[in-house]
Amino acid sequence: MRSDHEAASPATDDTPEQAVFRARVRAWFDENATPRADDDLWEVTGFVSPDRAGTEFEEGRRWQRRLHEAGWAGIAWPAEYGGGGGEPWMARIVNEVARDYRESSGFIASTIAMLGPTLLRHGTEEQKRHFLPRLLSAEYTFCQLFSEPGAGSDLAALATRAVRDGDEFVVDGQKVWNSAAQFCDWGFLLVRTNPDVPKHRGITFLLVDMSTPGIEVRPLVQMTGSAHFNEVFLSGVRIPVANVVGEIDGGWGPARTVLANESAFIGRGTRPTSTRLVELARLHRRERDPLVRAGIVDLWTRERLQTLMGETIQNAVRAGKPPPIDGALIKLYAAESKRRAGDLAVGIMGAAATAGDTDPARWARAELYGRFSISIGGGTNEVQRNNLAERALGLPREPRVDKDIPWREVPRS
Ligand SMILES: Cc1cc2nc3c(=O)[nH]c(=O)nc-3n(C[C@H](O)[C@H](O)[C@H](O)COP(=O)(O)OP(=O)(O)OC[C@H]3O[C@@H](n4cnc5c(N)ncnc54)[C@H](O)[C@@H]3O)c2cc1C
Question: What's the whole-number mean pLDDT along residues 260-265?
Answer without folding.
Answer: 76
